[in-house]
Amino acid sequence: MAATRRLVKPALFICDLQEKFRSAIYEYGRVISTTQKLLKACQILDIPVFATTQLRAKLGETCSELGLDSPGGIQTHAHVDKSAFSMFVPEIRDAFKKLGGEKREVIIVGIESHICVTQTTLDLLREGHKVYIIADAVSSCNKEEVPIALARLRAEGAIVTTSESWLYECMGDASVPEFKQIAGLVKEYNSKTKEGLQALCRM
């Protein structure tokens, strides 16, 4: 008999991964790569995805290689432009509530760690959700900001973890039906995951 997943109500929040940030954010390419891996996992595990852009007219669209809301790509539950730093603006909040009133396990990736990721995390924690910050999928312009932000958010009650650790925690058991596909995905991204950890998790 197949097991039940350990995390039963997860959702992925993608914070402001936009074209104009490519040359500004520390190790941006690694953040994008890890996010791509998590998006593929969300397709396999049927996890809802929410995304934002910050002042899209000035800072550009969501990076095209993520394939959000494109033919063949993952379809988001909400993909919203904002001026607020937190992702949890009314449009995201309303779409999030449509999933059901239960408290959820929210995974956050994106930028910047000390601004938009921080304020999104604080808002979600305030509403009673469990928040996972993926350390190999968040960054800032100044790399020195990242460990300070993660330490603060850990103290606030968020869980700071890695993409691979979170994937296995989400499943919880090798007998879940999706295990083989997720294990294959982990293997596919093995070298990129290692590079991302070395770049983003040694600060």
UniProtKB/TrEMBL annotation:
Which lineage is the organism of this entry classified under, starting from the top rank?
Answer: Eukaryota, Fungi, Dikarya, Ascomycota, Pezizomycotina
Locate the Isochorismatase-like domain: which residues? 11-164
Q: What is this protein called?
A: Isochorismatase hydrolase
Matches recorded under Pfam families: Isochorismatase (PF00857)
- Domain of life, per the record? Eukaryota
The record's family statement is: Belongs to the isochorismatase family.
Q: Specify the species.
A: Aureobasidium melanogenum
* An annotated Gene Ontology molecular function: hydrolase activity
- Keyword annotations from UniProtKB, A to Z: Hydrolase
Q: Which InterPro entries match?
A: Isochorismatase-like_dom, Isochorismatase-like_sf, Isochorismatase_domain
